[in-house]
What does this fold into?
Amino acid sequence: MKPEPLIVGLDVGTTKICCIVGEPDSEGGINVIGVGAAPSRGLDRGVVANIESTIESIKEAVEQAEVMCGRELSDVYIGISGSHIAGMTSKGMVVIRDREIRETDIHRVVDAARAVNIPADREVVHILPQEFIVDDQDGIREPIGMSGLRLEAKVYIVTAAVTSAQNLIRCANRNGLHVSDIVLQQLASAEACLTQDEKELGVAVVDIGGGTTDIAIFTEGTLKYTSVVSLGGNHLTSDVSVGMRTPARHAERIKRKYGIAHVDAVSADEMIDVPSVGGRPPRSEPRAELARIIQARVEEILCAVAYQIEESGYRDLLAGGIVFTGGTSQLEGLVEYAEVITGLPCRLGRPRNVKGLADIVASPQYSTGVGLMLYGLKYDGADRFRSRDGGMFRRVRTRMSEWFSELMAAMF
It folds into this structure.
């Protein structure tokens, strides 16, 4: 009997590499059968900075997942993030040939909307329709079968640096993995943590990772805006290391065990043990001092998030508030403090709608990995708006060839 096909999400983050394996169940859901995680040693703020180190980290995470699920992995959905990610809205219009909108008309109008000038060193990652307009009737989500003379589409185009996408693909390929698709990390996190009601009402998902904080805003059921803040949990660790005069490995442990987002929530007489450097004996320091150090950086991150939400123009439409996820979102008091800073209702987002090893992957730190897997289940072979020119690797390779050709032409 042929085994069930596997769906694999590979979250290549600044702090950790996470590989989550699932298989579709009979109810249309997904059953998690394997999880692997390894420290990330080759990325800087979401971008590959050391190929060999990244390859080794991916290998370690994938091998753990393979041992747990008892299967060899081949195809993966991989997440992409970083400050190089950019999004823009575009419109396209076509004439309906026989007065009834068909699937081919949808393809034509989306292709017309994506016909924008994109630099040769950038690659389209997603083309996400926001709405269709038939003649003068707007706000249509599914126009197939409708009658009309003119069809318009408003889409959100997400692009990434070609080199960043290529390096991710290369690291996966060097481990014998085929990349089924590259997925925007905050889109994957939203797939795992948000409800459809929240997307309809208006919600922002904020994924606070190790190197970056990724933001995605949904209203009326579709993605409207994305942004990346180049601050994350590693900046908190660095601040604690310098402020408490302790090595980074101890600073990370102290942050996780005693860290809190607001100094007012800490008793003035509470003390913690802090390892020293250079062989000096450990010291006893007020926990309030740790909280003061962390609060300063958390406030900076939250203010940056609030600014991006305001800049998006959708703040007043976020009836669902903000959903925080990612490893750093688990910091004690962060969600409550975020409500004070942003003035919006906030909650902690955890992966939903998974079975099997759900107790292992229920943590916010696994949101992107689970979301990549759910994205694969939802869109594999069914996403008609995906770029249809032969897969991500071919698109990246073509972009790189065009880029180098233009560079050589300019030089000579």
Observations:
- Residues 386-393 have pLDDT under 50 and may be disordered.
- The two ends are 60 Å apart (CA to CA).
- The first strand starts at residue 7 and ends at 12.
- DSSP finds twelve helices and 19 strands in the chain.
